[in-house]
Amino acid sequence: MALLNFKKRDSGAGQSVTPEMEAFLKGYSIEVMPRTAAKVDDFRDLLPAGTRVYVAHIEGTPIEDMVDTAKRIAGEGYDVMPHFPARIIKDKATLGDWIARYQGEAGVKQGLILAGGVAKPQGEFDSSMQLLETGLFDEAGFTNLHVAGHPEPNLDIDPKGGRANTYAALDWKQEFSKRTDAEMALATQFCFEAQPVIDWVNELTERGMNLPVHIGIAGPAKLQTMIKFAIACGVGPSLKVLQKRAKDVSKLLLPHEPGEVLADLAAHKAANPDFAIEKVHFFPLGGIKTNATWAINNGGASAKPVNS
To answer: Which InterPro entries did the record assign (predicted)?
Structure first.
């Protein structure tokens, strides 16, 4: 696979990132939580104007905190996409209330609809499909509805292994996309190796799936942090990339960066323009500022400083 020798744009080294990487990172999105967003003084110092910012809804986070975060980020000029996790939403009335709050206070018209990482549903919903079937997102005029994709087999969805349940859900979502006015896309869990992602995306295409893929990428973080999140999120097969690196004690304290996997995917996209990955979605495991700075230095658009 192709490797890039990344140089920071301000290093004065005279070597810049490739056009392929710049094209691949164009319009990337990033994920925050209310508590991590609160640590950022102003997102305009870090992210290009108009960046889509997902707001993750973790179990136990009050909806008031979610809406306040969405309102604040939207006010700074960003497209906000809050999570709607089915298993922590009590009922249809609660879902309607959330949608109304997000729209009324933050002007939200897009959402990531997912089951959520809770083992036992807290109410009547168990899956993203049940949320979509309520029709509330269409009634509210949502323009973008993203749903979860899993490049690697997920034992939470398919306990016996394989992808039978995963593909059945994707087939349903593909059909749903034909009866909604909203634009739909697959937002995936993060991966650390390009080839399994390429194989999965190509398999989806062969199955007739035409939803664009927004590939999840873990931003720079300490190796221990990466491994912890990978295990917690059920990222299995590509975890071996981290485990191999962890055997080198000298690398344990160094940040693990996404340069290699992104370079490989960017090169593949450049060679195969119809490849279904449309955008990159960053999970800032090592911090929002660290991730945003890395993106700017490695092919992403620059942020406009507030005081410029």
So the answer is: FAD-linked_oxidoreductase-like
Closest CA to 197 of 252, 261, 141, 246: 261
Quote the CA–CA distance of 89 and 209 in Å, as a whole number: 28
Residue with tokens 């634009």: 183
For residues 70 and 58, give the distance between their C-alpha atoms in angstroms, rounded to a whole number.
14
Please state, in angstroms and rounded to a whole number, the distance separating the CA atoms of residues 176 and 178.
5
The rounded distance, in Å, linking the Cα atoms of 230 and 154 is: 12
Tokens matching residue 191? 């991966």
Half-sphere exposure of 86 (CA within 13 A, CB side): 18
Q: How many CB atoms lie within 10 A of CB 251?
A: 13
pTM over 0.70? The answer is: yes
- Residue 82 CA from chain centroid, whole number: 11
3-state SS assignment for residue 164:
helix
Among candidate residues 60, 58, 79, 62, the one with its CA nearest the CA of residue 70 = 79
Domains plus CATH for the chain?
Answer: 20-297 (3.20.20.220)
pLDDT digits (tens, 9 = 90+) for 205-245: 999 999 999 999 999 987 776 666 555 655 555 566 655 65
Single-letter amino acid code for the residue at 97: D
